[in-house]
């Protein structure tokens, strides 16, 4: 009886090992596919920084890597900025919106133009999306490089992976974690400028 149990246990372990190998390979394939839009977007970002809201011409280049929801938010934010300028036609007033001097995919002000990027890891979420952890670096030798990290939420849409949001992580210089989706909506009600106090 004991020998039969041993054989049954060995058979079970072996069959579990074989069934998990294709699952692991499938997960790795999905992770590689999810990494593609992140890599392509950040290659563009380091070769030509994307500060503030991209121009319509630049949007055509980066839109294949973004979700339809994120594209809609960026377009509404552009319309909201235009609405602010319509409401404030004088040329000497600086717009108050947070996205004005913001690198949409890298961070605020001094983080808007990284020189290099590295995808440190891809992490699968329970809903089938991935989180891409990205290290960004500014400064070329002989300067000492300065690094910071962001996380992209990558989801499947229309049979391909796209970036749906960017999380700007808390670190020694940044007190709170923020999301691109929240920054884009600040002061806006869709395409209308309403100000930060009226939200």
Blueprint of the fold:
Blueprint: H1 2-47, H2 56-62, H3 68-87, E1 102-103, E2 107-108, E3 116-124, E4 130-138, E5 146-157, E6 160-168, E7 178-179, H4 180-185, E8 188-189, E9 192-193
Antiparallel strand pairs: 1-2, 3-4, 4-5, 5-6, 6-7, 8-9
What does this structure look like?
It is globular and about 85 Å long. The longest helix is centred in the first third of the chain and has 46 residues, at 2-47. The chain has helices spanning 2-47, 56-62, 68-87, 180-185, and strands spanning 102-103, 107-108, 116-124, 130-138, 146-157, 160-168, 178-179, 188-189, 192-193. The strands form three sheets. It has a five-stranded antiparallel sheet. A two-stranded antiparallel sheet has the order 1-2. With 199 residues, the protein is an alpha+beta fold. It is 40% helix and 25% strand. The relative contact order is 0.15. Strand 1 (102-103) and strand 2 (107-108) form a beta hairpin. It contains four helices and nine strands.
Q: Estimate what percentage of residues fall within beta strands.
A: 15-25%
What global shape is seen? globular
Please, what is the average pLDDT?
84
How would you name the oligomeric state of the polypeptide chains in this document? single chain
**How many strand elements?**
9
Q: What is the element string, with H for helices and E for strands?
A: HHHEEEEEEEHEE
For the sheet with most strands, the description reads: 5 strands, antiparallel
Model regions low in confidence, pLDDT < 50 over at least 5 residues: none
User: N-to-C terminal Cα separation, in Å?
Assistant: 72 Å
